[in-house]
Structures are given as C-alpha cells and as structure tokens.
Request: fold
Amino acid sequence: MKAKFLHIYSRMARLSWYYSPLILIVFFLQLFLLQQRAQHISYDGSDESPAKSSLNISIPVDHLLSSAPVPATIQEIRTKIRVLNDLQLIFNGETHGGFSVAPETPVFIVQLHDRIPYIQAIIQSLRAVRGINQSLIIFSHDVFSKEINDVIQGMQFARVMQIYYPYSIQMYPNGYPGPDPKDAALPIGHGRKPQLAQIKLHWIWKFTQVFRHIKVLRNHTGPKIFLEEDHYVSPDIIYTLNKTLQIQTKDCPKCVIILGDYPKEHRWPYLDWDQMEWSWFFSGGNNMGMVLNQRFAGVLSQCAKRFCTIDEYNWDWTLQHLNVGCFQERLQILKVEAPRVWHVGDCGTHTSRDSKKKCGTLQQVDTLENVKRLLRNKTDVMFPKEMRVVKKLRRNVPSSPSPYGGWADPRDHSLCLSVIKDL
Reply:
C-alpha cells in the first residue's frame, strides 16, 4: 500500500507541483506526522562518543530562526520542502529499477543554487557518462524554483532525488539565517554575509543528510561523489573512479579520492589521462569532485564542534584547518592528473560585480565551451586501460593560512551544530 501511494505521489509530483488537491492533502497529512516529531534539538551527549558529547547542543532550531512575517507563498514552500525532504522520492525508478546498495554503485550529490545555465550544463555532462543509468543523482537545493524543478525532473537517463536545504535565505528573507536589518556588524573577521554563510551551512546539512538521513543510503557503502552546479564531468568519470578505487583499496585505504582539479588552460593539451598522484590534502586544489565515504564522515564527526565554530565561512578551507589542527591523522589523497570534474563557473559567488554583467548566457561563458571542446578532442585517451600512480607521497605537508573570517556569528555556530549533531 505504501509503495503504491509513493508511486502515485511521484507521478503527481512530476505532473503538477503546485495545484493538485491530492498534493495538498498529502502536505497536510505529512505535516501532521512531522508535528509529532521533536521540533527542537535536545542533546545532552549521554550514551554517545566523547566527540559528540562535547557539542552540548540544547538550543531549539526554532529559537534560532527568524519569526519575522513572510509572504504566504514562502510559508507554502516551507511546507512543501518539509514534506519532500521526508518523502525522499526517487524519480525514474520505474525505468532504471530500484536503487542498488551494492558497493560499486555510485551516488552523485550535486549542490545547487540558482544558475540554470550551469545546472543544464552539468546535467548534459552527466547524461554522457558511461554507466550513469546505474547510479543515483541527488540534487540538494537552496532555492525552490518551479523552473529548476522542471529541469531536474525532465531528466530520464538516471535515478534522481531532490532534497531541499530548509534554512535558506529564500525561506527566511527577513531575518536569520537570511539578512536581518537589526543585526549589528560583527567585529571579528570579515563580518557575516548571509549568502556566503549559507554555502557552508548548506554543505554540512547536505553532507549529514547523505550519511545519516537519506533512507535508501543507510546501507550504501559505495562511493559518493560531491559536485556543485558549476562543475562539468567527463564521460569516463565512473570508469576512472572504479579504477582508482582499486588502487585505493590496495595501496591507501585511508586516502580520499579527488576527481577534479584546476589546471591552467595552457596545460590542458598535455595532461596525462592515465596518471594520478598520491599526496597530502590541501583544500585549494582538492575541493572538487571529492569522493567521500563513511570513514571520512566518522573523521569529520570527531571534529564537528571545530567545523562549526572556526571563523571561516568556506567549507573547504574549514576542512583544511581541521586537517591541520583537529584530525588525528593528516588527510592523504589520490588525485587524477587529468580532471574528470572541471570547474566552469566563470560567474559565481566570488565573481566581481563588473564581471557578472556578462554572465547572462552560456555563450558568454568561455570556460564551459573550452572544456566541452577539450573533452570532444580527448575521446581517444579517455577510459585508460589502467591508472598509474606517478607521484608518491612527499614528506612536506602544506601549511594553512589563517582563517578568513565571515563565520563569527554564534547563531551560525549553533545552527551548524544542530545540523551536524547526528553525524
């Protein structure tokens, strides 16, 4: 009965997001069930590991979030994302079969904002991946948009799930976690910018969902590839990942696999597609196409409090500071020389105001077109017979700069801790 209900709801969700009376009934039913759950965080650390007991979380989430009035449309979207996050629907299961938790089954997790041309581009690249029909692609949104939903739900080539970060600026436009006109400028670091703080909060929320809360992944021990909306993947990414996993299992079980890099464009023609390096983690070049597993989740959970309280708004540089000052062992990586994940975001968070003026269409974004051209010209070297480690671990360990700032607001600390507590 439950399976039949979810199948019917899945079909209705694809056809009519906004107006179906059936969906409204489902919303209220799910709301009733959700209200029976604890709506606040009460954590005293008993019967838990020392690392978790050190979090001492007792601030209810609702006490952190702004109670400022919002339009009825925002209230309605809040309700929808609660329901959808609880249902965890998988689209295209009727075409590609049920999701397998076999170790070799890859899961792609893509963090999205609102740049539709880039979202369309990464979907285009995923469509060309050999073996993608065996995978699950999870899109984690911080903007609820019918246009974006239509793009995602138009995918037919793989199983797809959508989850929605519930504490976004869109959901709280008139107060924390969004911009709050009553906030005083914080003297520490570079001050709080909601759009930047949201990226780190979204990242750790998504990470915790993947490793603790998404039901279909509870027994999944396979690779989880973390991507963002302005990434572009090569057709042999799953093939290369499988080859690299063999090396990881044999030579460095603790290594984190890195499938992305930022090579200068003049080096692109000379990259070796069958080579990789074994080195120390450094976030500046190792933050893209990270393949993370349950072991890494355990390592991060031991430093959860530090992750949430260090004055650094970048999630990747936060990992770097943990790597130097909190993790029991420095992270080691296995990293491909020729990226299977490319950064094509000429128009992103750190783009200057003048540069953003020319970011309207893909035709104006040179990097994306250049990467597409490169991949078309490199089909003969993709899918190498073997991957070879040509650079071994060196003794020198990269040092870390001082934290950048932007993460001194105690509300960000508390909200982050409330999210990460289950990790």
Q: What stands out?
A: Confidence is low (pLDDT under 50) at residues 1-24, 31-54.
